[in-house]
Design brief:
The protein is mainly alpha-helical and about 270 residues long. It is about 60% helix and about 0% strand. The protein is built from twelve helices and no strands. α2 runs antiparallel to α3, α3 crosses α7 and α3 packs parallel to α10. The protein is globular. It starts with a helix and ends in a 16-residue tail after the last helix.
Amino acid sequence: MLPHETAMLLRFVQAGQPVAAAAAAAAAAAVAETAGGDRTEQADRVVRHWRHELVALAASPVLDGRAARPVRASLGGAVQGLLVLSLADLRDVTDETELVRLVACLVVRRDLPAGWRAARTPYADDDGPDLLDAAASPGEVEAWSLVAGRIPATVLSPARELWSADRVGGQRTGGRPLPRALGDLPAVGLGLAVLREYRALAGVAAAAYAEFRLAPAPPPAARAAAAARTAGRGVASYLPPRLADARPLVPVPRSQAGSRPAPSRTPRPDGVR
């Protein structure tokens, strides 16, 4: 990573730590009452929390279309980073250098410069340009306002600098340019964007579980297929009603093609079959 990218990642970590710690504390408190403080159950609750935040925001019609593309990319990267920071908090990881390394490795999928250490300078809330002032259109302003209502602008500002550009954002899980462009398609693109980010967050969660040695045993193929179907239904439940008619556009896997009745042949007038 370039020096200014690493500095921006440090800003994100410093701003995101209090938000991530609050999510981790809420998960720990809930599990302490039911599962006796089991760390894996706490991690599962953290994942569910950030998954809900992601889908609830990303499925909003305000984030539909090309104008909201930088907001969608920033939201996806911010939630992935906050998930990693929340899981790190559960494992009592507080060193900023290590936290930056974790986000770089698990979200950006890049290594830090050799010998890099976090500078011991306090984070200033007024660092960086204002989100609304930097917006390129009224649609982007509306999208930023919606997202900033649930994720602090101090977190979103470095997230925008990191993940709305192709150099770093294109390396993020779920952030490559072509899949991002598909999210610009009218109506159906919003559903594709939400499903892509949902799956990307699941991939980051799995990598973080392995990093923190929280990973459960891999599920059998049948359970994995059932989990994929459940994920699809979960995402669909958040989508606006105008996407309800998009189901016929989804291709049927070959394994299920036989369940559809074969089209009947139209008889020819000369009687030849």
